[in-house]
Amino acid sequence: MANPSPAESRRPAKGANGGQNAAAPQEAERLDLFKFAPFRLNRLAAEVSAALASEYRERYRLDIPEWRVLATLGFRREACSAQYVAACTRTHKSTISRAVTSLLERRLIERVENADDRREFRLRLTRKGKTLYEELIPRLQQREREIMGCLSAEERKLFDRLIGKIETSLDLIQTSEEADAKQAY
Fold it and tell me: Tens-of-pLDDT digits for all 185 residues of the chain?
């Protein structure tokens, strides 16, 4: 009997019925991280977040979790719970708790009693926090324009639409009005 060719020796063994041997392990397809969408999205988000962080880290001494608290409170323009901030920003509650403590100490946010549940406190920006937020927003919007500047206006619209489709497929809330209507956070 002749020796099998190199190509034949790499083929899975055939069973008695002439088909592929079900017990033979199949070679797993190699994962190319640089083509794997979850990896690419995570890496892109981390880089964009770091680029924006440079705008508020040096000038305002804010870290990313502190910024997320301020941004959520400023965006909402009404008091909300730390749990809301954690859920909305997809940040661990202990990380948000530390950020809240720091922002309270710096008097950028304050606690207000929840009228519906007196055991719960909500958070809102102080006057000092609102001033910081309103000063920082144009800087971050400018930085966003710089980051997105590599895309044409049409590409930015398409990018926004495609991200929205992915968010929809994952059943993610996309607007504060939707969050309020669903009482999601």
Answer: 444 444 444 445 444 455 555 555 677 789 999 999 999 999 999 999 999 998 899 899 999 999 999 999 998 877 989 998 998 889 999 999 999 999 999 999 999 987 777 778 899 999 999 999 999 999 999 999 999 999 999 999 999 999 999 999 998 878 878 777 765 55
- Sequence spans of domains, the chain: 33-140
Dump the DSSP string for 21-47.
Answer: -TTSPPPPPPP-GGG-HHHHHHHHHHH
Q: Structure pTM?
A: 0.76
What is the distance between the alpha carbons of residues 138 and 135, in angstroms, rounded to a whole number? 7
Label residue 74 exposed, middle or buried (CB < 10 Å: 0-12, 13-18, 19+): middle
To 5 degrees, how large is the angle CA 60–CA 179–CA 91?
45
CATH no., domain 33-140:
1.10.10.10
DSSP character string of 84-106: HHHHHHT--HHHHHHHHHHHHHT
Total number of residues shown for the chain: 185
